[in-house]
Amino acid sequence: MLSPRVLQHKNLTLYLRGLIILILLLLTVPVSADDEALARFVSAERFYKDKEYKKAIEQYELIIKNGKESGQIYYNLANSYFKNGNYGKAVLNYERAKRLMPRDSDVDYNYKYVLKLVKDFGSEKKGFVIKIIDKFTSFHSDQELVTIGVTIGFIAIGLYLLFLFLKITLMIGKIILVVLSILAVIYMGGFKYKVQNQVGTAVILDDSDARFEPREDATVYFKLNEGNRVKMMKFEGGWVKIRRSDDKQGWVQQINLEGI
Fold first, then answer.
1. Can you state the angle between helices 87-100 and 71-83, rounded to 10 degrees?
2. What is the average per-residue pLDDT within 19-44?
3. How far apart are CA 72 and CA 107, in angstroms?
4. 2 three-state secondary structure
5. Taking CA 239 as the corner, what is the angle to CA 236 and CA 243, rounded to the nearest 5 degrees?
6. Which stretches of the chain are DSSP H helices?
7. Count of helix runs (H) and strand runs (E) in the chain
8. Domain end call among 176, 198, 220
9. How far apart are CA 168 and CA 259, in angstroms?
10. With 90 as the cut, is the pLDDT of residue 83 above it?
């Protein structure tokens, strides 16, 4: 039985929110492209409501292919894939939605729900400090980390120049500059850490065998479920060496996974 909250995609509030986001995105492109993307979005919503999930997927994919992406569109696309029974693609697009809308409760709930269905192996084991860093960076989108970090940095530089010009040497002024500088480093460092952590992350699209070597007749080492998350480590002749969260490594065919 499907989770009741997966059906929230039909909710009028989500529809309006997605529509508003799409309209804002369209303000930056030519009018003809605007009309086409908006028409596709409306069509996708209608197909979804009519339970024609494949057609909804087609429309959302075309919107993204034409350069109009947002967290809401990825979320809608993930829901459509989920309803169509494509759990691998659902996980992939929930991941993409989470990166753009990291604090959205509906995305988070549906994402965790589908991970349970695909029997995901979970995240890698990490120490306490790394877990804190992960919590901090996952709370913000990449854009937020950069914007906040750069803004704080400019404020710190501006205050430093102002204090220099006014010859302010109060201790409180120095403390403020130090705090702002530390915050700027934390946010920019968080962005760098998050980007590096995302490199090579992929989702298995179909149930696959991970083999000891990159060839069809090689011995199967372990199984991978559709929707499992892995790290891509090496490419060789249509094969990818991947690492699972439990550190098991094996070779799978490149067509069976997609980078986030």
1. 160
2. 68
3. 9
4. coil
5. 100
6. 12-26, 31-49, 53-65, 71-83, 87-100, 105-117, 128-139, 142-166, 171-198
7. 9, 7
8. 198
9. 52
10. yes
Question: Is 257 strand, coil or helix?
Answer: strand
**Within 13 A of 42's CA, how many CA atoms are on the CB side?**
7
Instruction: Confirm if 59 and 47 have CB atoms less than 8 A apart.
Output: yes
Q: In which band, very low, low, confident or very high, does the pLDDT at 36 lie, cut at 50, 70 and 90?
A: confident
Tell me, yes or no, whether 95 and 62 share the same domain: yes
Is residue 122 a part of any domain in this protein? no
- Count of beta carbons in the 10 Å neighbourhood of residue 158: 11
Q: What is the pLDDT of residues 199-247, one digit of tens each?
A: 999 999 999 999 999 999 999 999 999 999 999 999 999 999 999 988 8
Q: How many domains does the chain have?
A: 3
Specify whether 16 is located in the same domain as 108.
Answer: yes
What is the tens place of the pLDDT at every residue in 137-195? 999 999 999 999 999 999 999 998 988 888 777 788 889 999 999 999 999 999 999 99
Q: What's the pLDDT score for residue 125?
A: 75
What tokens appear for 135 in the block? 């919590």
Give ∠ CA 99-52-16 in degrees, rounded to 5. 50
The span from the CA of 191 to the CA of 182, in Å, is 14
Domain that holds residue 80: 4-117
Please name the residue that has the structure tokens 């914007």.
147
Residue 221: partners with Cβ closer than 8 Å, 6 or more residues away = 210, 211, 212, 248, 250
In-domain check, residue 123: no
The answer on 194 and 208 residing in a single domain is no
